[in-house]
Amino acid sequence: MNAPATAGMADVAASAPRAVLHVGMSKCGSSALQTMLSLQPELAPVAAAAPARYVVLPKDGALVTGEGIGGIARRVPCGYAISARADDLGAMGWARIALLRRELARAAGDGARLVLSNEGWAQEYADFTAGRFLERLELDCSVLIYVRPQVEWCNAAWWQWGAWTGLGLPRWIGRQHERMQWSRVVEGWRRVPGVRDVRVRLLPPGIVEDFCSAIGVASPGEMIANRSLPGVVLRVFQRHRRLRPGAHDSDIEFAIARHLELPRSRTPWVVPPEVAERVITRCHDSNVELLAQLEPEQRERMRADAAWWDPTHFTSRRLLPWQVRPPVPQDVDQLAAVALEALHRLDAHCRELEHALARERSRPWWRRWLAPPGTVEQEADDAGASP
Known about the structure:
Blueprint: E1 18-22, H1 30-39, E2 42-43, E3 52-54, H2 67-75, H3 86-90, H4 94-107, E4 113-117, H5 125-131, H6 133-136, E5 140-147, H7 150-160, H8 169-174, H9 182-190, E6 195-202, H10 207-215, H11 231-239, H12 251-259, H13 273-293, H14 296-304, H15 329-362, H16 365-370, H17 375-385
Parallel strand pairs: 1-4, 1-5, 3-4, 5-6
Antiparallel strand pairs: 2-3
């Protein structure tokens, strides 16, 4: 069900750029969605819908669009580009806001809807309300939020953040109870000035397809990004904390997922039955409210899914300890073999790049300037192919 328009929307000019804000939740497919948007920022419409264009609000500098988004995605460890957090938006002066306002209007000048994303925004609705960022940017926004059953979220979020905080799992989950009241987040975003409506979707198997269908654009296909690492790697992180020193030091995970050909496996299930029961009990009233915030088909799906309501739903899962465990020799041996294979591939690639760079540096400056695009890459390929 779409939420009603906020009172502030009456003051929004009819010419204000229309925007879709994907605000999360965290651990609800955001990486796959943001990877797709970064690689293909121009989204073709379906039927009578307007096209959509992904744009990025940076911490500083001008609005990032088009190929600039791909440039960021190629440089950062996660492989995608997202907009700045609320704190960074709040630090922007009037001149920066005025510049971004003009650039947003220019980006939507052909009638395209603008798409902006940051999964951290979900819990920042109070900052957006106080700062009136969307009104100051003169955006007419629809908000899209993805949610999943809280017990499942706890297990995924524990391995993303909690395991690296120094807290035990029961204590860490206890600190998340307020954040897991999804209905409060939805109501909070309904009150943000500049928000026309809020849509809530249950996390589907394919978030890219669902997102594109929800906003009326053609899907380019699912993207695999930030895939959960197998337990053997997570256990190595637990035993060697220098590899994962803090809750937000996750760059190594993206590197491992890119270069190690690891077997697909589920994240270790570590939520004990008594903790699952406590989470479901604490979130029950909020989940009842969430039912009323969903569209009819989504509402029926949630009502029928025992993961939202019944802690015994999780008893069939193999429960593993959340604490640090000693290494299993066979698993560690397999991981070592995969890591050595990756090192071999990366070494070959680095040597090719070093050879191409050395050839380029030895060329006269005028040849470097006059060489047609792609010449250096072709020479590197030729050199790599020679015996």
